[in-house]
Amino acid sequence: MSVFWQGVFPAATTQFQADQSLDLRATLAHIDAMIEAGIDGLIMLGTVGENCSLDLTEKHVVLKATVDHVAGRIPVLSGVAETTTAGACRFASAAKEIGVDGLMVLPGMVYKSDPRETIAHFRTVARATDLPIMCYNNPVSYGVDITPAMFVELADEPTLVAIKESSENPRRITDLRNAVGNRYLLFCGVDDLVLESIVLGIEGWVSGLVNAFPRENRLLWDLARDGQFEAARQVYRWYTPLLHLDTHLKLVQYIKLAATECGFGTETVRAPRLPIVGPEREQVLKIIRDAIANRPT
Prior knowledge:
Order of helices and strands: EHEHEHEHEHHEHEHEHHHH
CATH class: Alpha Beta
CATH architecture: Alpha-Beta Barrel
Strand content: 5-15%
Structural class: alpha/beta
Radius of gyration: 18 Å
CATH topology: TIM Barrel
Number of helices: 12
Helix content: 40-55%
Number of strands: 8
């Protein structure tokens, strides 16, 4: 299966009203702002989109509104983060009916599957749909590691076309290339490892902080991909304190706060998440506001 996913794909936020109900208008306005800044694709209902905090009907509503609003301007992918394999298959089928262009599939949530179980999960979901799939490998957050050897074993599933590599180990990019060549499109999924990953030969970047700084995010990507590494390093050094926010347990709160400070949406999150307060809030705000005051042109 051939797809042409490349470039910057935000893991987009889901916006909420003050009472934590969906705010579709704000969600879509934020998407428009990122499209105007030059994003190449869009991932809804990822971790930053608070997938596991939405009920099934809400997920369908968000996807339908997004697909209709984007109207083919860029590819729209949906996160698939269900607790069971059967649930993931049902969601994949529903997402196709809604009209998404692809899926980003996670291992089954809550249960930490072993390699045999993980491979079976991805095979089963891959065979439940003909949509192209990005496999999301994030052992740091989810406790399940999809190793290069496992991707070799999965290479016979034609709908598995890309990997979002979030192991926080940039060696994996080269290990994957050595193991599977160009069989999969490789995306960096850790914001503060993106420059290193570009040097090692990725096709794309699933980013969190692009929600707040879409133009600067695009600038970094373009400079690095064009081989303008001295200029890219300068932007990266400015951006890195912000990018570190993507690797924290509270990345959703931090990214939404940063986006709010930049004029995109609100910082409202779904409980049990709560907006950050006290010294933690002041520390994160200082990082964000210092970056805004010194942002590159």
